[in-house]
Design a protein that fits this description.
The complex is a heterodimer of chains A (423) and B (253). By secondary structure, chain A is mostly helical. In chain A, 76% of the residues lie in helices and 3% in strands. Chain A contains 16 helices and four strands. The longest helix of chain A has 39 residues. Chain B has one domain: P-loop containing nucleotide triphosphate hydrolases (Rossmann fold, 3-Layer(aba) Sandwich), CATH 3.40.50.300. Chain B has nine helices and ten strands. In chain B, the strands form two sheets. Chain B has a six-stranded mixed beta sheet, with helices on both faces. A four-stranded antiparallel beta sheet of chain B has the order 2-1-4-5, with helices on one face. In chain B, a hairpin with a 2-residue loop joins β4 and β5. In chain B, α3 packs across α4 and α5 runs parallel beside α6. Chain B is globular and about 55 Å long. The model of chain B has no long low-confidence stretch (mean pLDDT 92). The chains are: A mainly alpha (423), B alpha/beta (253). At the A-B interface, α8, α9 and α10 of A face α2 and α3 of B.
């Protein structure tokens, strides 16, 4: 009896610590990064964390590859912004704080409506139908401008209703905390869902739908329920984005956004609950920060995605967990140096690559002239910078191969030691 | 209590395209009976299982479970009425742990349906039942191992565990000892005998040792027809069976 209690305790403590830290990070992030730019980006990260996790309820947990998930966040956002406008016009009173919940309910509604039909299929057929449905809703958004606002979208003012305890949602920081609270609640709810009978059976349906049918479960019903609930959380994210940007346009139901959420979830790692959280943060960083630095950001994102798919199909989460496992066995000390070499060589190759890409972009944009890169100013049409860039890329690539082989040897050796230790 | 058989097939036919696989099977299996279906390769044994468990629809005929017509029902509907089956090719939840596999197999039978408002770790009866089955199939020490990483014999045991975990009254086992060596097969037979005690068991099996050891009655299926159904001793003595199946099997051993 005593043993059981002792065995259980650390687990629960660990969980409280994890969730406590998560809450703490959400609360303190604006203190650490108080710049307006950072607040905007972190607000967006919160929205994308909810969106990517809701997507992973389908892909990672139920095995449904959707190419049209933006439909549910987008429609949740459209309905939210219309409600916001109605509140503003005095049609009725509703607290803005709870508006994301309405967005979620609209997401749920469309999840139920479209999900019942689409979840009859799985695999490739489901993926194709989701793509078609996404295109259909996107087309509709341009065909019915009275509701969707056409190209320009629908805009609103979020400062409506009576302020509550001085909260008007005027300042961006107040919106950040609104998003933070909803992010925490939604992440907790989605995590709890993985530990319910439906959550576990969804995994079973993902692994082996046929067997799930033979233990009494209708796979259609399981997929449908997961789809509808996923629609709810996507709609919630949509409601938050309506408040955050005060505008919703056709882009929010577009295939580009559906592809974006797939990228975010996959980069983070769909096999782990917290994977998409990491993915959402990295993805938003690319979309907001890197996009502000260079026009080639989409190219870098695409290459990054390809690198993950090819070299770490478990996503960033799997890389983190594998290294934690090494650390748990007290062997991480052996990796510092090899990692250092890999990082240094990788950085060199990366700099060379970035230089080539940026110079190419500059050349195609302006047809010549001087450009600035890494604090250097040079004529883009002269030979020297190209030679320097290509030489850096070549040398970096060569060193990277050497460093990687060395790292690989060390890594395999460590894995062998860990495997031998296992009972 | 009516004396309806646990499973009854009446004039069951099944064709794939123009090929007739099952050609008018009539079969009644009593409650609590341990029944083996034997026959040469391609006789339609697995197809018969797939028809009874709802994996394939019948072309014509009727299948009853405890006297109630189940023809045309979906697999999950048939399972909910108390019939559970295993597969010849291991059919488990590969990326889930042993314990999780078994827990998923008991959830519906305990009435948790599609609940998304209860924590699965708090479902005492489900956890106890899963642990009990895990103990019964001898996999307790592999509790947290991923099912896909188990040895073949362990996966076969898990396959049987998933099949019986829900407490179905009627159990269909499709070649439970396929691919096992002598001692593994003996172990499996012992396991099957224990976990199906008091239930109706129907099994397809190639290993005659296992069949004559376990079965109360045997049906011989040849080219989609049941040519004999009888007690093991009578089947062994049946001339038609010897000619069609056992004779060749006896010669080859």
């Amino acid at each position: 009896m005593n043993g059981a209690v002792l065995r259980f305790k650390p687990l629960n403590v660990g969980r409280y610590v994890t969730w406590g830290l998560f809450a703490l990070v959400l609360v303190l992030a604006p203190v650490a990064f108080p710049q307006g730019f950072a607040i905007t980006m972190m607000s967006q990260m919160g929205i994308w964390i909810i969106f990517a996790l809701s997507y992973n309820m389908l892909l990672g947990q139920t095995g449904l590859l959707s190419f049209g998930h933006a439909v549910y966040s987008g429609l949740g956002a459209y309905f939210s912004i219309h409600v916001l406008n109605m509140i503003g016009a005095g049609a009725f009173a509703f607290p803005v704080t709870l508006l994301p919940l309405l967005g979620g309910l609209f997401g749920l509604l469309f999840g139920v409506l479209f999900g019942y039909v689409t979840t009859r299929k799985s695999g490739v057929a489901f993926a194709m139908i989701s793509l078609g449905l996404g295109e259909m809703v996107f087309a509709a958004s341009l065909m019915f401008p009275s509701f969707f606002g056409g190209e320009g979208g629908i805009s609103a003012n979020r400062m409506v209703g009576k302020p509550f305890l001085g909260i008007t949602y005027g300042p961006a920081i107040q919106v950040y905390y609104l998003i933070a609270v909803w992010t925490f609640a939604a992440v907790a709810a989605m995590f709890a869902l993985t530990r319910t009978p439906l959550g576990r059976i969804a995994n079973a349906v993902r692994d082996n739908p046929e067997r799930a049918e033979f233990v009494g479960y209708s796979t259609h019903m399981v997929r449908f329920l997961m789809f509808a609930l996923s629609g709810f959380f996507a709609g919630l994210a949509g409601g938050l984005s309506a408040i955050n940007y005060e505008i919703v346009a056709a882009e929010s139901v577009s295939a580009q956004r559906s592809g974006g959420v797939l990228l975010a979830a996959y980069i983070g790692g769909v096999g782990f609950f917290f994977g998409p959280v990491i993915g959402a943060i990295v993805f938003t960083f690319f979309v907001v920060y890197i996009a502000g630095l260079t026009k080639a950001w989409l190219l870098y994102l695409g290459l990054f995605f390809m690198a993950i798919v090819m070299f770490a199909p478990g996503g960033i989460a799997s890389i983190v967990l594998m290294n934690l496992n090494v650390a748990k066995h007290g062997l991480f000390g052996r990796l510092w140096k090899p990692y250092g070499w890999v990082a240094a060589a990788g950085l060199l190759a990366f700099l060379g690559f970035v230089a080539v890409v940026e110079m190419t972009y500059h050349l195609s944009d302006t047809g010549g002239g001087t450009m600035k890169l890494f604090g250097l100013s040079f004529e883009v049409k002269s030979l020297a910078p190209w030679l320097a860039a290509l030489a850096t890329l070549g040398a970096g690539g060569f060193l990277y191969r050497l460093a990687w082989n060395r790292f690989r040897g060390e890594w395999d050796d460590i894995q062998r030691i860990i495997a031998e230790k296992a009972p | 209590m009516s004396a309806a058989p646990a499973i009854e097939l009446r004039e069951v036919f099944k064709s794939f395209g123009k090929t007739q696989i099952i050609r008018g099977v009539n079969l009644a299996i009593g409650r609590g009976e341990r029944h083996a279906i034997i026959g040469p390769n391609g006789a339609g044994k697995s197809t018969l299982f797939n028809l009874v468990s709802g994996r394939f629809p019948v072309s014509s005929g009727t299948i009853c479970l405890n006297g109630a017509d189940i023809t045309g029902l979906k697999p999950y509907q048939i399972n909910r009425r108390g019939l559970s089956r295993s597969f010849q090719i291991t059919n488990i939840f590969h990326r889930m742990t042993v314990f999780e596999n078994l827990r998923c197999a008991v959830l519906w039978s305990l009435g948790y349906r599609y609940s998304f408002w209860q924590a699965v770790n708090g479902l005492r009866d489900a956890n106890e039942r899963a642990a009990e089955v895990m103990e019964g199939i001898g996999l307790a020490r592999r509790r947290d191992a991923l099912a896909g990483l188990l040895s073949y014999a362990e996966q076969r045991a898990l396959e049987i565990g998933i099949t019986i975990a829900g407490g179905a009254e009627v159990i269909l086992l499709d070649e439970p000892t396929a691919g096992m060596n002598r001692s593994e097969a003996a172990h499996a037979v012992d396991l099957i005998r224990r976990v199906t005690a008091g239930r109706t068991l129907v099994m397809v099996e190639h290993d005659m040792g296992v069949v004559f050891d376990l079965a109360d009655r045997i049906s011989v299926l040849v080219y989609g027809e049941v040519i004999a159904t009888d007690a093991p001793a009578a089947i062994r003595a049946n001339a038609a069976v010897q000619e069609a199946y056992l004779g060749t099997a006896a010669n080859s051993h």
